Amino acid sequence: MRTHTSPVQVRAMERLKPPFRAIVPGKVFRNESTDASHEHTFHQMEGLCIGKDVSVGHLIGAMKTLLRGIFGREIEIRLRPGYFPFVEPGFELDARCPFCKDGCSVCKRSTWIELLPCGMVHPNVLKAGGIDPEQWTGFAFGLGLSRLVMLRHGIDDVRMLLSGDLRFLEQF
Ligand SMILES: [Zn+2]
After folding, report:
1. From the CA of 102, how far away is ligand 1's center (Å)?
2. SS3 for 21?
3. The model's pTM
4. Cα-to-centroid distance, 36 and ligand 1 (Å)
5. How far is the CA of 104 from the centre of ligand 1 (A)?
6. Which of 82-91, 143-152, 157-166 has the lowest mean pLDDT?
7. φ, ψ dihedrals at 130, nearest 5°
8. Closest Cα partner for 13 from 120, 117, 116, 138?
9. Could you tell me the pLDDT band of residue 100, with boundaries at 50, 70 and 90?
């Protein structure tokens, strides 16, 4: 029972020859107490793009395109430095809260929502996948699908998603 979808990166690298792009949705499991924003089982979507001269600019462009598609309008984003073992440099990507202009309960009054960890694929990860880091670079992200669904539909308790409650499910 994996805790995140990042392990699929190496499987993609083993099967595909660069340049390539891969998108892998999957169920992940955590051993933690549940509350409105934590659940033991949820869905992530891993993204990996390997090519010539792939840069942070491509990562930002891809994320903005994805959010525009989901929310139907331009969503402002920001990157903060973050440490994740598979990427260097690594970032926390925040999206401007789609529900308010000057703070609400969803964004905890900050107007930003922490959306996903991402970064440039670490050269050692490329090497482990049989890809020459001198020739190829890439970016990767781990999107929390459950969190995105909550944002898209204004759901304030993650536990509703797996509750099996028909009053909730029949709304979709
Ligand atoms: Zn807000």
Report:
1. 7
2. strand
3. 0.86
4. 17
5. 4
6. 143-152
7. 80, 25
8. 138
9. confident
Q: How far is the CA of 155 from the centre of ligand 1 (A)?
A: 13
pLDDT at 124: 95
Helix axes 56-71, 145-153, angle to 10 degrees: 40
Rg (CA), the chain: 17
Which residues make beta-bridge pairs with 114?
94
Strands 87-96 and 77-81: antiparallel
- Over the stretch 29-52, which tens digit does the pLDDT of each residue have? 999 898 887 889 999 999 999 999
Give the 3-state secondary structure of residue 70.
helix
**Extents of the domains making up the chain:** 8-30+42-161
**Amino acid identity, position 118:** C
Averaged confidence pLDDT in the chain: 91
Superfamily of domain 8-30+42-161 in the CATH hierarchy:
Bira Bifunctional Protein; Domain 2 (3.30.930.10)
- 113 Cα–ligand 1 center, Å: 8
Report CA(132)–ligand 1 centroid distance (Å): 43
Query: What pLDDT is recorded for position 7?
Result: 86
